[in-house]
Amino acid sequence: MIKGVDPTPPIVELSPKSATGHYASVNSELTSTSKSAAIMEHTTVMLSEAVQALAVKSDGIYIDGTFGRGGHSKKILAQLGANGRLIAFDRDLSAIESSKTIRDARFSMVHSHFSQIKAKLAELNVYKVDGILLDLGISSPQIDEASRGFSFRYDAPLDMRMDQSSGQTAAEYLAGTTMQHLEGVIKNYGEERFAKQIARAIIKERDDGRAISTTGQLAKIVAGAVTRFEPGQNPATRTFQALRIYINQELEELSLTMPQCLELLSPKGRLAVISFHSLEDRMVKQFIRQHEDVDNLPTNFPVRAADLPQPKLVSLGRAIRPSAEEVKANPRSRSAVLRVAERTLVI
Ligand SMILES: C[S@@+](CC[C@H](N)C(=O)[O-])C[C@H]1O[C@@H](n2cnc3c(N)ncnc32)[C@H](O)[C@@H]1O
């Protein structure tokens, strides 16, 4: 749990009208249409680096925890032999739909949050695996499809759920939250210095009887509350990111999942995580460090590492970042950080 943010979203019921109805006062820069399906591809980030990090064994069992449009999955499948197996997860129904193009007996797709990884794998009689990849965050199709409500570039109902089949939308959250809670979300997940002003403006709009139900409406309120922002960046960038992380409980998902990965990995199995947010990357780094460093006792403590349970993970190299060429070709990769760890032989 992140300091200052209650992970349990207050649940409220919205009338159908307020959930989807309000389309007034649209910022003139906004458009109500999304990009064409042709552009809604996802360019896989650090494709070679991430799959190489897994050191795919031809008969191994691998997990792609974040299928997206299957870029990493397809490369893993290409490296597996006839007896290998790949099980992919995604909580997004469009990702599940797109996985249907992979017709391969070695491949299974699971519609689930990856925090359910152990239980879902047990349903498939899988208890140990050779590698797990998590490519966190959202996919380009999620951002680029206006109706998903992730982007301030389009005007659409304010949804922001990766899993369209469950949980509360961002509009529902804003209808029921308190100013203090909202400020905590924007400040902690968006690292936004105008969190207080933004929260105040949003709550005022709502309490004046105008439900915050579209991305355009939210972007406009935020723009009015932010007096300074990075050049070239939309003033609503950090607020949208914060709400998305909160609505999808992204950090909680990660913290629930990494310990399960540790239990699932066979000796020499690999965990590779690509993060896009400093809070995520810090969690990954600390998790690996916590399980590889058993000798973090005070120097005068009369027991040493050799006497203690041995480390379960070893970090493989430093953090890997996308190459300059990749960032140039795909600017969305610019904040990516890949960390890789290997399970030791310790049971
Ligand atoms: C960055 S994209 C992955 C792209 C993928 N590696 C590719 O090459 O196409 C992240 C995907 O993970 C999914 N996702 C994010 N958090 C998740 C979670 N906690 N459980 C399951 N899926 C999740 C999102 O729905 C999205 O489709």
What does this structure look like?
With 347 residues, the protein is an alpha/beta fold. The protein has two domains: 16-38 and 152-247, Putative methyltransferase TM0872, insert domain (DNA polymerase, domain 1, Orthogonal Bundle); 47-140 and 250-343, Vaccinia Virus protein VP39 (Rossmann fold, 3-Layer(aba) Sandwich). The protein has helices at 16-20, 47-54, 71-79, 93-99, 117-123, 140-144, 170-176, 179-190, 195-207, 215-225, 237-247, 250-264, 278-292, 324-329, and strands at 61-64, 85-90, 107-111, 129-135, 265-275, 313-315, 337-343. It has a seven-stranded mixed sheet with strand order 3-2-1-4-5-7-6, sandwiched between helices. Helix 4 (93-99) links the parallel strand 2 and strand 3. The longest helix has 15 residues, at 250-264. The protein is globular and about 60 Å long. The two termini are 28 Å apart. Mean pLDDT is 88; it is low at 9-39. Bound molecules: S-adenosylmethionine. S-adenosylmethionine binds next to helix 3 and strand 2. S-adenosylmethionine binds at residues 42, 44, 66, 68-72, 89-92, 95, 113-114, 135, 137-139, 162, 253.
